[in-house]
Design goal:
Two copies of one chain form a homodimer. By secondary structure, the first copy, chain A, is of the alpha+beta class. The first copy, chain A, contains five helices and six strands. Chain A has a six-stranded antiparallel sheet. In chain A, strand 5 and strand 6 form a beta hairpin. Chains A and B meet through helix 1, strand 5 and strand 6 of A and helix 1, strand 5 and strand 6 of B. Chains A, B: It comes from Rhodobacter lacus. Chains A, B: This is Transcriptional regulator PpsR.
Chain lengths: ~140, ~140
């Protein structure tokens, strides 16, 4: 039984590693948000960089603190609807800290009884160094 | 103790679901390959479609059965080297079944004592319907 527990532990560790690598290796900024409470469950480095905060600040924080739509707090429902109806659809939102516009597309899925949204933040313009950074 | 085991089981299930969603929601064809034995550990739907085989045929099969470089069997070592040296580098390979060229980039990571490669298959040309499919 001890051996079986150790095998389970190893398998869990390996799965965690693969999950983390998949999240971080994706060049798109990704957020996983719980529909039950609207909080950010996980996110990758591209997302923390785009939002302009630390991972510690963002984990567990309400997604609506960081992203805003036309009417506050309703965008998660709108995203879930987009995700359900049109896998290629997206919602235009604004990053609160930087006022930058992002096109957010989402995949809705169930895990452990909660509905989760995997959100991709699409940036229209490629980030470029500012003129005063160059010369 | 029973309750703790059930919690562990739930957590493992949730992690598996998130892992699977991340793998499948990525539009890029992705393969996870073991460096220890060269076999395909996992892959997403975009990769099965591009390779032109079923998931069952590909899971556990040697990656070198499906992808070929200039010299057979050495491309995994070459990929691991690319992954280690240059995160944006890629290796030109050919899909064996379709003879299609792909630029493969990779992320090397360790899990459960094995070294794994997360490989992204980049297709230069976008797939288009053939003329005789149109009309």
């Amino acid at each position: 039984a001890q051996l079986a527990l150790e095998r389970d532990y190893e398998a869990q560790r390996e799965l965690e590693t693969r999950y983390r690598v998949l999240l971080e290796a994706n060049p798109a900024p990704l957020l996983i948000v719980s529909l039950a409470n609207g909080r950010i469950v996980d996110l990758n480095g591209a997302a923390t960089a785009l939002i302009g905060a630390t991972r510690a600040e963002l984990l567990g924080a309400p997604a609506s603190n960081e992203l805003e739509g036309r009417r506050r707090g309703e965008f998660l429902e709108a995203l879930a609807k987009v995700a359900g109806n049109d896998p290629l659809g997206s919602l235009d939102l604004t990053i609160r800290r930087s006022k930058r516009k992002v096109a957010v597309s989402a995949t809705l899925f169930r895990a452990a009884g909660d509905r989760l949204l995997l959100c991709r933040l699409g940036v229209a313009e490629v980030a470029r160094p500012r003129a005063d950074d160059i010369g």
